[in-house]
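Lab notebook, page 48
Experiment: co-folding of the full assembly
Goal: obtain a model of how the components sit together before planning crosslinking
Operator: M.T.
Materials (sequences as entered):
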Amino acid sequence: MARIIVVTSGKGGVGKTTTSAAIAMGLAKKGHKTAVIDFDVGLRNLDLIMGCERRVVYDFINVINGEASLNQALIKDKNCNQLYILPASQTRDKEALSQEGVGKVLEDLSKDFKYIICDSPAGIEKGAHLAMYFADDAFVVTNPEVSSVRDSDRMLGILASKSRRAEQNKEPIKEYLLLTRYSPERVRLGEMLSVEDVQEILSLHLLGVIPESKSVLNASNSGIPVILDEKSDAGQAYSDIVARYLGENKPHRFIEDKKGFFGKLFGSK
Amino acid sequence: MSSLLDYFKISKTSSASLAKERLQILVAHERTSQNQPSYLPQLQKELLEVIQKYVNVDKDAISVSFEQDDHQETLELNIVLPENQTRKF
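Observation: model returned without errors.
Model output:
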């Protein structure tokens, strides 16, 4: 049986697709057969972030409608043979996703894969609902910013009440906080909510902090998940997150300001 | 010198602490209203109409709240009667 992970946030633009691509690649690189599914029908972008946009032939909706088999639609990643991408449809409207159809695809994938990552669209409409409905774990991607924290809290309420696990009275979805675009320096200056602040408000288990980093845009420019940029802080932060998720004991990094005491005294803003 | 001042800046004045305070209030409020049954506003309105038949109460004098814990659900109804009660009948 596969473990189904939803990457969700409520708010758009906080880093769901970047995170989905990085986490999927990280798990696959550790030797676990992983599939990553784009649930953003009509606005697909996972293919672009993963660098496989020119290899899309069939999509998720084609599989749901029986117009293509799963094997025809799954795209094997060029960097890792344990990783497969199921792109969203760019033309169909969101109504084409059905609970039965999504459930069937996830069930079929579960036979062959260890992890299934569901990249949720923004919002709380059908696509977002179906992305989280079957999940075992939820990675709640949050920016240290008021609207993102509020939307994450709203999402937590939905995860706790509208998922399959909730409806069947099973053990609830395990929720993890991923704080992205974090700037320790701005936190020190009192200009940004700290990781402790966000944790206190959301009462969530912290899986990791991704620092604000130029490497994220560089990675998406070139269509290579940022986790493969092993020299970058964001890449290392995602590697830590994958390791922690798999049960390794990794101390948190990228939370403290890099500058020492003297740097703080004499450093420029 | 500005960085020295920054280092000792009292967090109370920062925008981050303002953000935290606003979020804590908002999130607490939204969590309670999210768990409430959807019939609550209608119930409050109808109860008010019934009570107003008999007692002159203001619409703010009535509050209906719903609370939930592991064991039970509580529907609390609070009506503040005016000091010199004037019965309608």
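Interpretation: Chain A touches chain B through 25 residues (CB under 8 Å).
Next step: discuss with group before ordering constructs.
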